[in-house]
Design a protein that fits this description.
The protein has 272 residues and is mostly helical. It folds into three domains: 4-62, lambda repressor-like DNA-binding domains (434 Repressor (Amino-terminal Domain), Orthogonal Bundle), CATH 1.10.260; 67-172, Serine Threonine Protein Phosphatase 5, Tetratricopeptide repeat, CATH 1.25.40; 182-271, no CATH class. The protein is built from 15 helices and no strands.
């Protein structure tokens, strides 16, 4: 069993605070802290990031993990999760994906990367409260900007699923508005394989995002009764998809051409 209680006790004494002080900061009873330290129980997985953040250490350090080895093993877990997820925006088997990540969290409790994967597998709105709670923990404690931003995005989705639009908007407003991505900058400034990989990924993401935005605009025009404009947006989206017909997959991306997506867009036009 991981001796996290001993580590918490050592860090607490190093800070010169009592069990009561720690309990107050973390939001638990001092009896809970006492049980952690004497080894009769462990902190809930959702409390791990907050405890690590309070002491100013990483979750790996809290568990005395070797950081390099942990990163490699977490990467392997995420790889298994990604394979289970599939290539689309919608997870093929969310229950199995959640199981994979929860098994990983048993080995690496509180790991930011695994928690971020976890909230992407939890169904909405059925378990929105759980998603929001994990998201709040992540934005408070993670040292990764991309995880914090993604947590806000997923929290916004959870709030929207509950009809809490003001909270949804508040979460969205925490996401910085930028006009370039790290992939774009890598493609612009780096060289060799790094530049090639970044350009391929940015190309596919740009095409995917453009088609999605055209669909959203079409929906608005249709709702306003402007069916001609709605149809034009979808026709442009189809042309974007068709422009990639002779493109090809790489070691980094699949071909952006998607006949099934074109079929869906065509059916939307017919329904207008």
């Amino acid at each position: 069993m991981i001796k996290i209680g001993e580590k918490i006790k050592t860090l607490r004494k190093k800070r010169g605070i009592s069990q009561e002080n720690l309990a107050e900061h973390i939001g638990v009873s001092f009896q809970a802290v006492s049980k952690w330290e004497n080894g009769s129980s462990m902190p809930d997985v959702l409390l791990i990031p907050a405890i690590a953040s309070f002491f100013g250490v990483s979750t790996d350090e809290l568990f005395d993990f070797n950081l390099y080895e942990t990163e490699k093993k977490v990467e392997k877990i995420v790889g298994e999760y990604s394979k289970c997820w599939g290539n689309g925006d919608i997870c093929k088997d969310p229950a199995r994906c959640e199981e994979i990540i929860r098994e990983g969290l048993k080995k690496y409790p509180g790991n930011d990367i695994l928690l971020n994967c976890l909230i992407g597998t939890i169904p909405l709105p059925e378990r929105a409260a759980e998603v929001i709670e994990i998201g709040k923990q992540l934005v408070r404690s993670t040292g990764y900007d991309e995880i914090r931003i993604d947590a806000y995005r997923i929290m916004a989705e959870a709030y929207k699923s509950l009809g809490e639009y003001s909270m949804c908007r508040e979460a969205i407003e925490k996401i910085p508005e930028v006009y370039f991505s790290s992939l774009y900058v890598k493609a612009e400034l780096l060289e060799g394989d790094e530049r090639f990989e970044a350009a391929n990924k940015e190309k596919n993401l740009s095409a995917e995002h453009l088609v999605y935005m055209l669909e959203i605009l079409s929906g608005h025009y249709a709702a306003w009764g402007e069916k001609s404009k709605a149809r034009i947006q979808l026709e442009i989206a189809i042309k974007v998809m068709e422009a990639f017909e002779n493109d090809f997959s790489t070691g980094y991306t699949k071909c952006a051409y998607d006949p099934e997506k074109i079929k869906v867009l065509t059916e939307k036009i017919s329904a207008l």
